[in-house]
Amino acid sequence: MSKISGKKSFLSQKGFSILEIVVVISILFIISSFSYASFVYLNQRENLDKEALSILSFLEEARSSTLGSKNALQYGVHFEASKAVFFSGSNYNATDPANVILTLSPIIRISSINLYGGGSDVVFERLSGETFDNGSVSVSMTVSSSSRTINVQRSGLAEIN
């Protein structure tokens, strides 16, 4: 009998109990949950930055095309909640097949458009590249309060804040 009881005490000192394993797994789960949440938020912020840069690129392309007198036309960018549209001409025409549409990610939206005159278009003037539609456009995440503001100056230059 003493040999058997000696083996049991030797085995119980050698391994981990189920409770210890459950505690360690629980701690690892909690740590990985926080890491995953941080990763998702970081990914969403990068997506916001990418979309804001794409809109800025549209504005710069419209101004550059206007200054370069491409096809002897003016160019501009039209803003809606879920997209930005690069267009040619002095007015936005939704049915123009030459429009280039930038559809924003589902978690990104254009939350406010504050342009001079209250419109939703920025059109650049030929020869000078200036715009009478100066102001700001805010791009934000639908899942949080993070946002980026694109400021368009009277000179036609734009920047992200």
Brief characterization of the structure:
The chain contains two helices and eight strands.
Protein described:
The protein has 161 residues and is of the alpha+beta class. The protein contains two helices and eight strands; from the N terminus they run ααββββββββ. It has a four-stranded antiparallel sheet with strand order 3-2-1-5, covered by helices on one side. The radius of gyration is 28 Å and the shape is rod-shaped. The model has no long low-confidence stretch (mean pLDDT 90).
Approximately what portion of the residues adopt beta-strand conformation? 25-35%
- Total number of beta strands: 8
Order of helices and strands: HHEEEEEEEE
Can you tell me the residue ranges where pLDDT is under 50 for at least 5 consecutive residues?
A: none
Number of helices: 2
Overall pLDDT level: 90
Largest sheet: 4 strands, antiparallel
Which helices and strands, and how do they pair?
Blueprint: H1 2-14, H2 18-67, E1 75-80, E2 83-88, E3 100-103, E4 108-115, E5 121-123, E6 135-141, E7 147-152, E8 158-160
Antiparallel strand pairs: 1-2, 1-5, 2-3, 4-6, 6-7, 7-8
Please name the defining characteristics of this protein:
single chain; 161 residues; alpha+beta; four-stranded antiparallel sheet; 8 strands; 39% helix
